Amino acid sequence: MKKFYTIYIGWFFIISSVLLTYIPINIIVSNLPINIFIWILSPFTLIFGIWLSLLNEKTK
Amino acid sequence: MKIEFYTQLFIAVYIVLLGLMVIIFKKKKSNNTVFSKTSEFYLSSSKPLKLPVLILTFAATLFSAFFMVGVPGFLYTHGLLTWPFAIFGGVFGMIGLYHVGKKILQVRKKFGDHISPLELFLKTPLSKLIFIVSTSIFILPYLAIQISGFGKLVESATQGNIPFIIASGSGLLIIFIYSLLLGIKGIAISDFFQGTLLLISAAVLGYFMTYIEFNGPRDLIDTVYKYNPNLFTIKGAKGIFTLGAVISGGLLFASVPVTQPQFLTRYLLIKDEKGLQYLKNIAIGMGLLLVIGTFSILPVGLGGAAIFPSLESGDLLVGHFLNESLPAWFGGIFTVGVLAAAMSTADSILFSLGQMFSRDIYRGIFNKKATEKAELLAGKSFIFLIATIAFLFGISSSNLIVNLSSLSYAGTLQLLPTVIAGLWFPNSWKHASTISILSGTICLFVFLKINPLNSYGIHPGISALIIGTLAYVLSHFIAKKRPIK
Questions:
Q1: How far is CA B172 from the centre of its chain?
Q2: Cβ A39–B94 below 8 Å, yes or no?
């Protein structure tokens, strides 16, 4: 049960990091397009997703 | 004091430290660390390496001069999107690393430690020969940029006072001697220190750009955005980030830990009982270091676009920055960091090629009764040959570092069907790998001239990979239908 959740939450993070990079969002946050912040952050959420997806991987 | 003084001083200190390491290492474990001794070759009798050393040796092998000089140059030319795209490719490579590594460890457990990495997925002497020839040819540009990347940096940082040819020649000499003196385990342990050094020097460079040249990250982004908003567009400042190009680039980069020789031999370092657990941590740890390392060098490329807007090539950026904006002593340290980055990649490549050649080609095909001494000599001669060709290639080629890297990645990508099918489908036809590598490689050369998927922005390497994969599958099924007597 636990394994199921971490894998799927992990892959949710992975896919959304990649997708969000491609979706243009026309919102300006403190004089900059919000996409810039997303682009800076998406690699971090991606690696977090990969960590989650491998968390309960069988290693024995 | 000038930067060339500090460069020479710190490189001298670095060489002395490396020398000390060789002496200590040889004294301590004199029986099983010499290049190509059977025990060292398969590491069967040596003690397993600790997890932090394993993570750093994998990471340092991936971080090359390309990372220190090429990535800031690419950011400078094409903008912010370089960062997520490079990470996507790299981090997906870590997933590949985990799954291929897991399979290699499992297959190896089944067959025992005496098996060489190539024997895990190749069945005929011809396929081994073709695999090694193809790897050697395509790894050459990558090896060459380690040498030329270091040379270019020293030349531009010292404004030509240390010429390119002297810098790259001496860099290569250090790498060559070092890879002959130490075995794979010694290289792995020195990678630990080199990896730490290169990550720290990249972070300090990023800090200088963010906090000395600008007033923090926000000021940097605001200034660069005002100066050139094109650097913050989804297609990149020069429009190269099309969907096809991004997928191709990601695949090329992601295939590195699965197809390049320095990684294929590195899996054998994981000897601990908790091998799979270690492998998982290596994949995640390496991905994390990739993210942190690239993030710390990100401000250099972006900030450089506003400070030095009219450079001839992005590859010159780091050298200019060191020379014009930073204290000379730091220039010297950073140069050693780039040498460490180049070295940790190049010595592993040279060593693994020497290993594969001496074991699988020399002893496996040409001289089956070869003594250990003869095998050792064959491996060393091959390393010398490859290093010399790489040097000549490096000094004669003026291509941008990134272009040479992608050519190399595209070439070794053609080995992917062989590695994957050989590991997961051991009963596939024994000549399918030969046919696949040959057709993929030939198609790559053809597609570099006329690429059928060019209009979609797909890299010729990916088009050739499709052909290579089809060739593997088709030849397997045809051969299974009509068994050859």
A1: 16
A2: no
